[in-house]
């Protein structure tokens, strides 16, 4: 029996609306594979409004990437506090994001590395606020969490670095602090390795259901710090020396 994609999407949308969290998706509506999980993602994203970008990552430099659409409503582009009541739980990940400056439309031939890089307008330090529509992170099978926008809550986008080609993301230092206390301070940290590989995959494959990459989209490329949970009242700062700093207070 085929998985009921529509029922899965509606359950996730209802959890968002009613703030009644799920132990699991309904019987018959639990995605059995990545194709079904991404179909649920797309249904939910379309119901929530315009897509303004993507999160993409990989378990290691050789792994097939995973992707989730980011709705414009979840992109925080201007500084300021964020209400904790907007979320169920709040995990923090410091990441590096690319702003697409030129369309990369769908085509049959793969994009080269340089074509993808030439379409990038700027590089940004970002903080992903991790959340779930389930009772807790990891409570149900992995594909259901993938369907739930890969545990996305919101993305805080820091200032643009236009002269970004000098940055080496693989060897980029990062320091993450909560209420001025350093919790992570290291170099690199992204399990995916080179994020440009992720951008190429996204342009060729991951964004196909959405018509490709479009100018103005923000693409965040995986955690450089791992995920750390916070409580309301936490001021978060992610510093990427040479790239920039992004901050948010979750109140």
TrEMBL record:
Which Gene Ontology molecular function entries are recorded, alphabetically? Answer: hydrolase activity
Q: Which UniProt keywords apply?
A: Hydrolase, Lyase
Where do the Fumarylacetoacetase-like C-terminal domain residues begin and end?
Answer: 82-250
Keyword Lyase among record annotations? yes
Domain of life assignment: Bacteria
Does the record carry Calcium as a key word? Answer: no
Q: Report the PANTHER family cross-referenced here.
A: 2-KETO-4-PENTENOATE HYDRATASE, ACID HYDRATASE
Protein name as catalogued: Fumarylacetoacetate hydrolase family protein
Q: What is the lineage of its organism?
A: Bacteria, Pseudomonadati, Pseudomonadota, Alphaproteobacteria, Acetobacterales
